[in-house]
Amino acid sequence: MRFSTAAAAAIVAIASSVSSVNGFTVSSSSLSSFTSSSANNFVRRAANPRAYTQTSSSSSLNMSATPLNVGIVGATGAVGKEIVGVLEKRSFPVANLRIFGSERSAGKNVETKFGSVTVELFSEDAARECDVVFLAVDGDFSLAHAENICAGNDGAVVIDNSSAFRYKEGIPLVVPEINAEATKGKKLIANPNCTTAIGLMAVWPLHKLFGLKKMVMSTYQAASGAGQPGMDELMEGTRSVLSGERAVAENKIFAHPLPFNVIPHIDKFQDNGYTKEEMKVTWETRKICGLPDDFPVSCTAVRIPTSRAHSESIVALFDKPVDIAAARKALEEAPGVKLVDDIDNLKYPMPLTATGQYDVEVGRLRKNIAFDNALEFFVVGDQLLRGAALNAVVVAEAMVENGALQAKVAV
């Protein structure tokens, strides 16, 4: 079956942003009908390498520490692949990289900048031999193994990407540009939810300047937040509608069909009417920023039919009068933030430009006209990088600098 040029272009626009450079692959079934020569030309035009080059306006930390033995559990998954890529691109002091997996992946070779690495069958004893272990696995796995890996003076530092320990007392929940000092003397660190991490990169410098009083956030989250199955459902569903096979796409991963639709529902609904995804923003903002347990943060989380990079509209109310020039300066100087705010030339944050980037894009900055002392702005960040892999590696960098992460002394 052949598509019209318009239909083909629409599918390629999705497919190009789901390519392996982003840590995902498009299933062969999703593209089996895609044979148009005009579509092939569109692929070449759409695959703008600048949109997917992993860069940061703030360079990696200056590392002069003793090289470390680094372990990754789940390195063949989307976040795990990105952790390997971030380690390769930054100056993190890797002496030896070990990758742990299940029986299904054990024995496979992974090519990295640090050499060809054979995936080892995971065991707690093997992981404890490392200096630092990144967990890119689900919460149940982390609950079962993380504390055992880091236990005792001879255990490894563990940086966990799951939700298992985010709200546990005594375990730091860290965005290093905000609260890196919380890692001092700790062996187990929790990585925040991607939505929270992306938003707080923009909110924190403004909070330091004006004093945050309340925050209302609306998120527009990509299909990749549901992993590869979510991406495949978006891709296949879009294809089936554009080909005329179906009037409405099928859905198994999402609560409703995602192609040509938006879904104001991510994660389970709670007793207060919010979803758990929305409450994560509230809970994690309070913990990371050291705010009171009743600090007012509200979020509405929406799934949209884009492939990668989450977007957020934020209204922040402050204690002090706000000044746009001062706010712009604070955002321009903030590490990990890129101010993209030139409306005369139609420059503002978008998933298309934020995908693959280390920095969070912030723009559409303006005084909110409904509330006093309030700013409104738009934030976009790559949730697999700033919201997961990059954040984890920068946590480890901060721990090297503050002495919480050191190479073990051989005995």
From TrEMBL:
Q: Does the keyword Signal apply?
A: yes
Q: Which GO terms describe its biological process?
A: diaminopimelate biosynthetic process; lysine biosynthetic process; methionine biosynthetic process; threonine biosynthetic process
The reaction(s) annotated as catalysed by this protein in its Swiss-Prot or TrEMBL entry are:
L-aspartate 4-semialdehyde + phosphate + NADP(+) = 4-phospho-L-aspartate + NADPH + H(+)
| Domain Semialdehyde dehydrogenase NAD-binding per the UniProt entry, residue ranges | 69-186
Q: Which UniProt keywords apply?
A: Amino-acid biosynthesis, Diaminopimelate biosynthesis, Lysine biosynthesis, Methionine biosynthesis, NADP, Oxidoreductase, Signal, Threonine biosynthesis
EC numbers: 1.2.1.11
What does the record give as its pathway?
Amino-acid biosynthesis; L-threonine biosynthesis; L-threonine from L-aspartate: step 2/5; Amino-acid biosynthesis; L-methionine biosynthesis via de novo pathway; L-homoserine from L-aspartate: step 2/3
What the entry lists under CDD domains is as follows: ASADH_C_bac_euk_like (cd18131), VcASADH2_like_N (cd02316)
**Gene3D superfamilies (UniProt xref):** Dihydrodipicolinate Reductase, domain 2, NAD(P)-binding Rossmann-like Domain
Q: Does the keyword GTP-binding apply?
A: no
Q: Where is the signal peptide?
A: 1-23
Enumerate the active-site residues. Answer: C194, H310
| Listed GO MF terms | aspartate-semialdehyde dehydrogenase activity
As for family, the record states:
Belongs to the aspartate-semialdehyde dehydrogenase family.
What does the annotation say about its assembly with partners?
Homodimer.
Which protein is depicted?
aspartate-semialdehyde dehydrogenase
